[in-house]
Input
Amino acid sequence: MVRDPLPFTDPPFAGSLEPEAFYPGSAHEEALARLEWVVEERQRCCLVVGESGMGKSHLAAMAVRRLGGLGAEVAVLSMRGLPSGDWLDLLLERLPLDPLSRAEPLRSWQKLENRLRENTLMERTTALVFDDLDHAPDDALDGVGRLVAAVEPRFARTLVIATATPAGLAAVPAAVRQRSAVRIELTPWTEPDVAAFVGHELRRAGNSEDRFSSEAIATLARFAGGVPRTVVTLARLALVAATGDGRDRVDAATVERAWRELAPMSADDEPAHQPHSESSTTATSRFQVVRRLWG
Output
């Protein structure tokens, strides 16, 4: 049977990078506080380290609002997948240059230096956030390293914030690793973090925050391993599966079933316990329900 769509004013667990959808978990709140300290202390570099799915990109998006509230001019550039030679022009597009400055017949690097000098003269910090710096092309790595290592007065109020995975740290420029005022580690969510996140998302969507049982929260935290991205995906699928079954509340069995049958995962991600056997017809019909409910 195909059921009606989920009764929410705003879909929960969407994983959006919009600030309104950001959940300030304890690890991210601590990270944002340290970023604020770096700005207030006029430091030149900061390194954010976390495994894939730990919310580095969400943190970068929130840095625009939080650091901007301190008077900093913030630009965020994702380095993943950038072709060689494009990073500097893309960074300039994210800075609020006036039309005359953009039209000047100058090299891109000189335009950037001019903007940094203007902000320094106005005693305003320019915070440049390079997300996934460990995936940047070589010319971008050289340029970011130059920004960090430069000692000229025009760079005095320039702050470079770089995010990377632990495995990718070797690819980060030595200047960034050596000159970082602090190294911020994004740690996995605990079970209370997961419970608080689920309640936050359900309230934001206009629904009861006890829609997940306490056992479901514990199972969600265990299967997701505290990784925020996996928590979001699994909570979303479990909610859809429960609604498809006609249940008003998500229980632990539904979370486990969503993990085993619906969550996209590789062979290495397979849980230690083998899934309960069900017919392929049942699994196929459940996928149809998911497509109908969430589109």
Summary: Strands lie at 45-49, 73-78, 126-131, 158-164, 183-185. Residues 26-185 form a domain with the Rossmann fold fold (CATH 3.40.50.300).
